[in-house]
Task: inverse folding
């Protein structure tokens, strides 16, 4: 079975269990805010090599499940550990010449990087909820660990319209991490991700280490 389909089926099953739990709770009961989440964000590459520019709209979509672990009797503080899937589409200005060589974009039009990742969010959570309240203020902060399932670089040459593609290149950093923050009321919340790990490993341009990192701004939706 396709791994991405298997992950999605697992997330749906876990969330159905959390719905069953919520229906049986009463005010004052101890509760767990297990949640299905979905985020959509505008993405940028920061710490790019000198001369590199962002060359179009970049975005990402994530969906996953977070297990809630209450830290206080009132339930206002908790931890969260999750599992999810993320897709990224970057328009960027770094051109892959072969599987281990990168340079600034030259004689190209479209230049995309597409990623499929497994995500592992780990959070500390503050909220104003109780066992029977489904809309409340929240601030969730923590780290997200990412493991890359596949990466695909593609660009089109201006000179002859030829499309060049590379998949699962060794200079791409398959293990990445970053800080994340979500805050808001109810289902709609502001979301930010600040990547700590470089996108590439052991990559240089004109002797300069390529230290590109990912930053995301967008919305995240939490469903009980």
Result:
């Amino acid at each position: 079975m396709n791994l991405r389909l298997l992950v999605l089926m697992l997330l749906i099953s876990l969330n159905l269990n959390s719905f069953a739990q919520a229906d049986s709770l009463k005010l004052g009961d101890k509760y767990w805010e297990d949640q299905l989440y979905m985020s959509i964000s505008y993405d940028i590459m920061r710490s790019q090599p000198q001369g590199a520019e962002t060359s179009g709209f970049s975005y990402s979509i994530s969906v996953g499940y977070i297990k809630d672990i209450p830290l206080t009797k009132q339930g206002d503080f908790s931890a969260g550990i999750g599992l999810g899937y993320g897709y990224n589409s970057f328009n960027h200005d770094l051109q892959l010449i072969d599987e281990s060589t990168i340079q600034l974009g030259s004689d190209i039009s479209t230049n995309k990087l597409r990623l499929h990742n497994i995500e592992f969010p780990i959070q500390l959570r503050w909220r104003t909820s109780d066992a029977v309240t489904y809309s409340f203020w929240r601030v969730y902060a923590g780290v997200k660990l990412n493991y890359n399932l596949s990466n695909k670089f593609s660009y089109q040459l201006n000179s002859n319209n030829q499309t060049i593609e590379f998949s699962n290149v060794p200079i791409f950093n398959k293990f990445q991490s970053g800080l994340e923050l979500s805050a808001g009321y109810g289902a709609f919340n502001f979301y930010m991700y600040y990547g700590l790990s470089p996108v590439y490993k052991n990559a240089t341009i004109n002797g300069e280490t390529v230290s590109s990192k990912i930053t995301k701004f967008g919305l995240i939706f939490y469903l009980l």
Summary: The mean pLDDT is 85.
